[in-house]
Amino acid sequence: MTVIGVVLGEDAAQGRIAAQLPDKQVNWREVLPGALVTALMLSAGRYGIAAFLSSTAIASAYGAAASLLVVLMWVYFSALLLLLGAALTRASLRDVSQAT
Questions:
Q1: Could you count the other beta carbons within 10 Å of the beta carbon of residue 83?
Q2: Rounded Cα gap, residues 25 and 31, in angstroms
Q3: How would you class 31 by CB atoms within 10 Å of its CB: exposed for 0-12, middle for 13-18, buried for 19 or more?
Q4: pLDDT tens digit string along 19-53?
Q5: CA separation for the pair 42, 80 (Å, rounded)
Q6: What are the boundaries of each domain within the chain?
Q7: Counting beta carbons within 10 angstroms of the beta carbon of residue 42, is it exposed (0 to 12), middle (13 to 18) or buried (19 or more)?
Q8: C-alpha separations of 89 from 11, 51, 61, 63, 75 in Å
Q9: DSSP state of 63
Q10: What angle do the packed helices 2-20 and 66-99 form, to 10 degrees?
C-alpha cells in the first residue's frame, strides 16, 4: 500500500510540474501519462539504487565522500527522469494537436 501511495504522490507532483510550467494551458488528462511513467520510473530507480548500494562497498571505496557521490547520482538520475517525462508529455501533446 505504501508503494502505491508513493507512486500516486509522485504522479501528482510530476503532473503539477508538467501542467504549470508550459506557457500554454494544458489539461490534466494530457499530462497524466507522462507523469505516471515518470513516477513509476522514479520508484523503480529508488529501488534500483537501493539494491546497488546494498550490493556494493561504495563507502569503503570512497570513504566519507561516498554519501556525496550517492546524492549526486540520485540528483542526476531524478533530473534525467524528469526531463524524460517532460519529453513524453510533449510528444503526446504534439500527437494530440496534430490529430485535431
A1: 11
A2: 11
A3: buried
A4: 666 666 777 777 777 788 888 888 888 888 888 77
A5: 10
A6: 2-99
A7: buried
A8: 13, 29, 40, 40, 21
A9: G
A10: 60
Enclosing H/E stretch for 91: helix 66-99
- Answer whether residue 2 shows pLDDT above 60: yes
Contact (CB, 8 A) for 45 and 100: no
Alpha-carbon separation of residue 44 from 22, 26, 29, 47 (angstroms): 27, 27, 23, 5
The residue type found at 34 is G
At 86, list the grid cell: 517532460
CA 29 centroid distance within chain: 18
